Structure formats: structure tokens, C-alpha cells
């Protein structure tokens, strides 16, 4: 049975799926024994169990060193390169530099130590992929010596987001969460401060005060206490629904059941949920920040992250102007093709051949 994944696991699975489509043989995923079987759901990729910090450290620093025999290239889909240059070329993906860019995310001593090791070991990589121009600029700021070995290749959207689920399945899903009001706004993502949910909730408070109907669905953590407290304080308890982490097909169903997708984040490395929404044919209203504007372009509407009144005005306009919403849907679907994993994998194929000289 499919289970929810972390963002890195979603990226890894999507990339492996795309690489198989363009003819690149992927011999394994993750730790020994997690081999790809393309005829099985999720490519045969095992789901990650909760590892201790020690297990994680051992794999990244020791275990991986004996796991690349018989391959032409090792692709590490996160920033932590092993503590030495390997005998085969390595490609490392940098999704974002949040721990370096945002002081609030420096964390405890253990996190500080981990990210100091990243700074020390990342130069051992043969090549680095930044998933956006925004992340590329962050690399240039924090690791300027690495810039000559960095290529920008966008993140991809899983093929499931290009295909709606059955109407009956969607209706069962909405009924299970008591969703009945329209228009329906959808947010998919985390709840930490940079996600800026307070601005979205303040905007919804004003919007819903003018409407007899309408609701906001927040996908990500059912019992997130700070968010629930804010919802109650703003008098939105009957208009805002929080869901737990969902399976991919359930998220697809909620996109399909929504009228507008809203994404108020203040910092991202890419902005995958807006890309998923474009693929699903849902109008996107998102923060005008570098990484997200790269994804959305002119296919959605971009708003100053902290301008509540602007969020109110733009959301209301899209809700009340069906022609505008339909125009956004058409542009979004066309834009989303750029993020199909088949297209993205072709860029990786060219990079791998250049790096491995094959």
C-alpha cells in the first residue's frame, strides 16, 4: 500500500521514474536492497523507516561508500556528500539552503554540526544540481567556489498529478473530511513560520466574512496546535479544515475538488505544490518570491507575501471571475508540461553523460 513520502523521497522516486522512461538504468535506490523494480508500484522503492540520527550519519558517511560497485555514476538526492571524493563521479542535488539563508533554522548543536559537515563535504561532489535559479543564487552566495560545477535543473511533478482521480473517489474523499462549502481554497505544504499561514488565514477571515459559503483546506498536519489555535482565534473554525499527511492519490483528489490553490510561503527552494496545482488544472495564487515565481510565471497570479489586503483582492477576483480562472487553468496546464519527469529526466541524462563521460 502506498504511503506518504518526504519531499526528497518524492523527488527521488519521480527522477527514477523519468530516467527509466529515457533509457537510463537505475541500479538501486537508497540503502542496499532497495532496488528498482519498474513493474511494481512506487518502483519497488522501500519506504523509509524512522532512523536514529546515528543510523542516518552512518549511511551518509560510511554505508554509501560500499554501495556503488558496478555503477557509472552516483546521484545523491540531498546535500550531504560522503566525506571524501568517490572513485566514480557523483552528482548532488541541492533543493534549498534554508539552514544557511534563514537564521531561525540553524537549530540545535546537532543540526549546526550536520550543516557544517555539508559545507565541508559538498566540494567533493563532481557536479551539483540546483533545482531553481533561486537555489543557484543561494549557492553562489554561500558556496561561491562551487558555482562552476553547478547546473540548474528544475524539480519535476509526478505523473499522477497530470491525471484526475475518479469522480466517485474524489467525492468519497471530500465527504470523509466534511468538505461541502464552495468556493474551496486549498493549501498544501508545511506549517513552519516561513510558510506564512498567518497571512493566508487573515485574508480568509476577511474573504469569508463577506461570503455565506466557502472554505479553506490545509493539507499537512491534522493537529498542528499553533495553526488550530490561530484558526479558532480568528473565528474560522467552521471554515478551515486541517487534514493529516495524505497519500498522493488523496492529495490529487483534493486538488481536483478545489477551486483555487493558495501558497503564501516566504521562502522556497522550488515550490512543488504550485507546480502540482498547475498540472491538476487549478488556478494558482502564490507569493511573489523568486523560486515560486520561476515555477508559476505568468500562468498564475503572484502576490506580495505579507500584504493581506492584496491576498484578499486577488483571491476574490479569481473566485468572482470565471473567465480569468479558466485562462489561468489553460496557461497552468501548458506550463506544467515543463515539469513532467520525462522532460526533466532528459536534462539529467545529458548531465550524467557529460559528468560520467559516457
Short overview:
This protein is an alpha/beta fold and 358 residues long.
Please describe the biggest sheet, giving its number of strands, its sense, and whether it closes into a barrel: 6 strands, parallel
Structural class: alpha/beta
Q: What fold name stands as the CATH topology of the largest domain?
A: Rossmann fold
Please state the average pLDDT score: 88
Q: In what range is the share of β-strand residues?
A: 5-15%
Spatial separation of the terminal alpha carbons: 37 Å
The helix content, as a percent range, equals 40-55%
CATH superfamily of the largest domain: Glycogen Phosphorylase B
Q: In words, what does this structure look like?
A:
This protein is an alpha/beta fold. It has two domains: 7-156 and 341-356, Glycogen Phosphorylase B (Rossmann fold), CATH 3.40.50.2000; 160-338, 3-Layer(aba) Sandwich (Rossmann fold). Helix content is 42%, strand content 11%. The chain has helices at residues 7-21, 53-61, 98-101, 109-121, 133-142, 167-176, 197-209, 225-233, 248-256, 272-280, 290-296, 308-320, 322-336, 341-356, and strands at residues 74-76, 90-94, 127-130, 150-152, 184-188, 215-219, 240-243, 260-263, 284-287, 301-303. It has a six-stranded parallel beta sheet, with helices on both faces. Strands 1-2-3-4 form a four-stranded parallel beta sheet. Mean pLDDT is 88; it is low at 31-49.
